[in-house]
Amino acid sequence: MSPQMYEFHLPLSPEELLKNGGVNQYVVQEVLSIRHLPTHLRAFQTAFRTQGPLAMLEHFDTIYSILHHFRNIDPDLKEDTLEFLIKVVTHHSQELPAILDDASLSVSDRSAHLNALKMNCYALIRLLESFETMTSQTMDLDLGGKGRKSRAKAAHGFDWEEERQPILQLLTQLLQLDIRHLWNHSIIEEEFISLVTGCCYRLLENPTISHQKNRPTREAITRLLGVALTRYNHMLSATVKIIQMLQHYEHLAPVLVAAVSLWATDFGMKSIVGEIVREIGQKCPQELSRDTSGAKGFAAFLTELAERIPAILMSSMCILLDHLDGENYMMRNAVLAAMAEMILQVLNGDQLEEASRDTRDQFLDTLQAHGHDVNSFVRSRVLQLFTRIVQQKALPLTRFQAVMALAVGRLADKSVLVCKNAIQLLASFLANNPFSCKLSDTDLAGPLQKETQKLQEMRTQRRTAPASAVLDPEEEWEAMLPELKLALQQLVKLPQEEEEVSEEIADRETAEEVKGRIRQFLGRASYKQAIILTRGAIDHFQESEPFSHMDPEESEETRFLNLLKTIFKGPAASTQEKDPQGSTGNMDPEQTNCKDKPSVSEPVKSRGDDELVKQEMLVQYLQDAYSFSLKITQAIGIISKMMYENTTTVVQEVIEFFVTVSQFGLPQALVGVRRMLPLIWSKEPGVREAVLNAYRQLYLNPRGDSARAKAQTLIHNLSLLLMDASVGTIQCLEEILCEFVQKDELKPTVTQLLWERATEKVPCSPLERCSSVMLLGMMARGKPEIVGSNLDTLVSIGLSEKSPPDYRLAQQVCHAIANISDRRKPSLGKRHPPFRLPQDHRLFARLQEMVTEGFVHPDPLWIPFKEVAVTLTYQLAEGPEVVCARMLQSCAKQVLEKLGDKSTNQEDPKEAPRVPTLLLMNLLSLAGDVALQQLVHLEQAVSGELCRRRVLREEQEQKMKDPKEKNTSSETTMEEEMGLVGATADDTEAELIRGICEMELLDGKQILAAFVPLVLKVCNSPGLYSNPELSAAASLALGKFCMVSATFCDSQLRLLFTMLEKSSLPIVRSNLMIATGDLAIRFPNLVDPWTPHLYARLRDPAQQVRKTAGLVMTHLILKDMVKVKGQVSEMAVLLIDPAPQIAALAKNFFNELSHKGNAVYNLLPDIISRLSDPEGGVEEEPFHTIMKQLLSYITKDKQTESLVEKLCQRFRTARTERQYRDLAYCVSQLPLTERGLRRMLDNFDCFGDKLSDESIFSAFLSVVGKLRRGAKPEGKAIIDEFEQKLRVCHTRGLDAVEELETGQGDSQRVLSTKRPPAVSRQQRLASAASDSDFVTPEPRRPTRRHPNTQPVSKKKPKVVFSSDESSEEELSAEMTEDETPKKTTPIRRASTRRLRS
Fold first, then answer.
1. pLDDT tens digits, one per residue of 958-1011
2. How far is CA 938 from CA 986, 1077, 1337, in A?
3. Would residue 147 be called left, alpha or beta, if left means φ above 0 and alpha means ψ between -120 and 50 degrees?
4. Of the candidates 88, 83, 29, which has an alpha carbon nearest to the alpha carbon of residue 56?
5. Could you tell me the pTM of the whole model?
6. For residues 135 and 86, is the Cβ–Cβ distance under 8 A?
7. What is the enclosing helix (H) or strand (E) of 126?
């Protein structure tokens, strides 16, 4: 077929070119075989050299054949074909401008060039797509493998990714020509544009197109599509294609955003933004809730587009608002993010027009409203957006309070992400606040009150000003006359100015009203307007005074001035007539005239208004700053409680927040900074590092001109932390400083200045000196040489022979010295002997002297110093028992001397001599400390030293036996044998130490034994020895003596627990709770029978005792030192304790317990049973609070299902309506699933007859509501069935449910057989008010019934669990007659009901 006689139609698929589709339509005649392709391609190349681009008309079949066999032909042939086609199209694009400009071009030539253009473009684009497909497949086969790029080159002989850009640029160049003239009527066919743009869209589908290396290709595609949009009406197709691609290709959102923003800006195609947004806006929100992939693409596109071109997008925002009410949260986030970008980039600033300000306010209202969105991701996103708005200072000041209130409210959000972002937003508010760098509300309250008072005074003064500040109108007139004359002359010379300043008189305006306007113009110094208005009034009011009274003989200027003067000063005569004679008799006529006009001129009044406005603005500023500070203070209180959340990220944000707060001088910041200290012990490395970084920022980088000034600031700030710090706080700070010292982050200047303050080389207060010694001791933990090299200096500082002695400083010196040695038990790896000082060292001599001398003085600081002194002696002295024995002997000698002096001076020889209470208390306290430290010394230092010596001896013996044996196998065998021998030796050493403790320490030959009768005497006679401090010291000493020997402990446990129960002193009960807790760890078998008495202290009337008992029981239970039984319900009661610290302690206990397998699940039935017991439980509301917390730990489906079944069965054995309601509430709090619901249906008969109660029915209905929210379609039927049964049973009873089932033809459910309720063998623990409550438990005996136990009534069955059953642990303890204290001081046990209140 002749090239001039056919027309090339662009096919939809390559196969269409093989079919004869119509008259004069080009058809491929023959698909060449692979072996003929190179020859035909060379022929095509030869023809091209002679015919140019039109050679394609005759050789198209060759290119078609190459495309047909593309997968199988040689790579070199592919590359040659591509290179040749690029050359052909390039040549054609260079020729076309001249051809298109040729007016004499024949129809046949135009048709030939059109066919050649379509053939060349079709061939090149299909070849491009073939290469792209092949490359994509190669990448899929070798995902992520190394050398992928080199293998792709080997497959094609070149790097295809580098070849795409020139082809796209060539097509762009071609489209930029005016090629539409090649078509009839200059209308280019849609198929040709679709061919060119289609290849662009196919390239975009490649996931690697978004990579940085493909940026040139992306830019070329964008340019090509931009030309198609601007020149070939491609907008509709592009919009549809972009929407489709966003739905199916997640990687394309940023690519298409870049393209669309470029088209809208560089190509001027802003309308395409509106078209795309309209298409997205018209998407059905319900459809997008199902199509998550599409919604994700649209959301990413809108978000990034708003960042690039917010001004263009803003005009289309109304289309997107429907998606704010849709179910897909990603679309809501995208629309909200777009609004935020517009606020930041377009609607920002103070010079906004009214319409823009309204739009901004609407956007902010929408953002605030979605701060309460049902989806946590949306709430979190809103807070993030507000954080950006605040950081860029785009939030209006009037919105601060509302947005801060939103952030503070979100701190209580259930979502961790929302809480985290709320904290970040509040931190941003602080960092970017427009008020002050210091935001203490106490500091702001003073200035606010002062300025408010000043404002009130100014307002009062303004109200009284007309009566007091009357100005002479004549003087005012004389002042304004020169300027008035000048204005009048200017208007006479330049009449055109009258037209510029036109003042018209209204038709209904009277002469008096016009006079008032003229007077106002004169007062405001608007003289030209006054003159022009006066001229108009003369013409308008010719018959009215004063405009009618004009002297014709005077000049025009004089007439005007006189008229203006009359108007300004007012009619004197009329004023005088109106006023009574008495009131004006003594007044000048001009002063009387002043009453008819303002007493103060307008300029003066204006200045006063300005001052008032400024003062109002100042007061408003201070009020806003004060409100802002109060809001931040409120947030600090909430955030500080979040510091111990389980989520690491929240804790890190809280720590960072308090660092920010500290920089703004809020006094509450120090509380948060201290509160974060215990987190240094966190097991999470991120939290620990966050605490260290916080303290680095707060303390290690102080401001100062010199290194010394910085060191002074650092020491001062750390000393503030130590003020009134607890022992725990000091230990935490010590750990942090130890870390800093070990990493050399503390400068030597700090250490030097601390020593100067400690030695008083620089003036400082006693407290500052004491804090310096404390800080030196803390630093010694990291580097012991800091203190070790200055030991004598420290002794001189704190243990000097000055009077009176400073026991606080001495105590801190002892703590600092203690840090030069390792207090832990020596490990086997250490070969060097532990650091010890000789007995005659000056340190121990001074310690002994200070303890002995202070023994007789009533200084409250002596007791803690004495305790530290004894501890230090045992830690560092060689033979510390000798030193401490001398201490005890010296103190005991002083007591005996005092006793002897009293007996000598005593008048009645029959009366027994008395020892001063102070001496007896100090002596018992010292004896207890020595006993405990002697035990610690034996079990740690002596045991460790014995072990170290044994290891050295065994190593020496091994070397003596075979010194040449060094091969690995023999060494391994030796170590194994030594391990076995070592285990036996360890047991021997432990037995030796135990024997010393049991047989020798409290034996009659030892000094400690001499104090045992004295301790027992004081403890057994609380009536005789009633001094609270003495009782506390004696009880503590008894606990310490019991720690030494199991035999002694066993014999005194009854006394200990009697005091624990009956002592009237909370401090004694608290101390003994700690002591018995320690005994439970040291002698668990001895204390185990007394465990119920430990639990009983959890309901102690004293808050201090409850707190101590909670701490002790937490440690014992979590360390598995006591059996966890139903009595753990006493810990659950602490969840509603009125003291927040105790409630937090109980919550922390159950949090930790929930991590121990199924512990909480196993205990829940017992806890529910005890707490809902009408005789010993808690009230209904507290029960709900407790169970809501405990049931939140049940998260496993199997646990939930099993618990549901147990609770349902419990309905049958419950005794009261209250128990029914409690059980129903517990069921409603469980996270039920469909399987759990089936369990409830199976046990419906257990609770069906109780549903007539409204509260029980409501509880089960709430279960239905929870199940519906996340129910699958197939599970809704069973939910409906359950709800129907509930409603029928509620209204008509359980029988109606059976009738309903029979009527529906359902099979009757088989009632599950129930076990008869177990008869309780528990003996309720009676009140401890009587002595008969204490019966010595029989340890390690089988369980037996108490002889006085009454049979359980059959009328009131009570369900109990195995852990509720009585055993020897739950029997009471009773002291025998001769062991019971003779003069007891019993206390009343508070009733359960009173405790609850």
1. 777 755 554 544 554 544 544 445 556 566 777 777 777 777 777 767 788 888
2. 14, 21, 32
3. left
4. 88
5. 0.68
6. no
7. helix 107-141
